[in-house]
Structures are given as structure tokens and as C-alpha cells.
Amino acid sequence: MTTAVARHSSEAATAEEAVLSVLSVEHTGGRTQFTMSVPEEIFPMIRNLLESGLSLVRWVETQNRVKKAQARAQDPVEREKRLQESLAYCNRILKKYDHLIKSGMAKREAIRETKKYHIGEGQPITCQEIEIMISHRRKLGREK
Description:
Strand content: 5-15%
Distance between the termini: 103 Å
Structural class: mainly alpha
Oligomer: single chain
């Protein structure tokens, strides 16, 4: 009886070897590449297993990025920094617009030229956003 068990376990070991065998492993530039041999009938199962593992890793990475972003959003220093950057950006736009208006340009044309200037500087903005900034400044009483 032990002989049969021994033969059975050796047959199982042979079957396992036939199921999966790693042919080569290479380490280059912080990456590891491996080649393996599997029977055709179990390939879809192994591919699905690897894809599931990759999906899990991507999900964990996404969750980490979300948690870091939430922490930055709640950090008072970061919030103040973003507010100051936003105000500086708005002031640059309004300064350019004011300069064009003082030079005698019509309001619509000044808005378009302000937009062109800031897009040329790599700062995307729309005419509507400029109009909102001008309107907001009027509500604060800075322009009559």
C-alpha cells in the first residue's frame, strides 16, 4: 500500500511538472522577465489569474493616489498655497485685460486678446472664464 501511495505521489509530481514549468528568468534594469511553459488547456485560467492580480495591483495603486490626494486637499497649507496660486493667476489675467482696455480696445476684443495671450503662454483659458473673472471683480467693487 505504501508503494502505491509512493507511486501515486510521484505521478502527481510528474503531472505538476507537466502543468507548469519556468523555462528562464532574466533580471535587467529593475525588471524581471520570466518564461514559462503550460499546457494549452490551462492557459486561459493562468492568463485570467495573472490579469486578476494585475487588476488588484492597479486598484491598490489607485486607492493610494486617492488617499494622498484627499490628504493634500485637507491640508491647510496646501489649500492656502492653491488659493494664492489661483488669485495670482486671476490677477495676471485681469492685469492683461485692464492694460488692453486702457489702450482703447473694445471689451470683446480685449477679452479675445487676453485669451490669445494666455493660451500662448501655455495657460489655457476661455473667454467665458475671463468674463466671469471680470464680473466677479465688479461685484467686489473694484471696477465701475
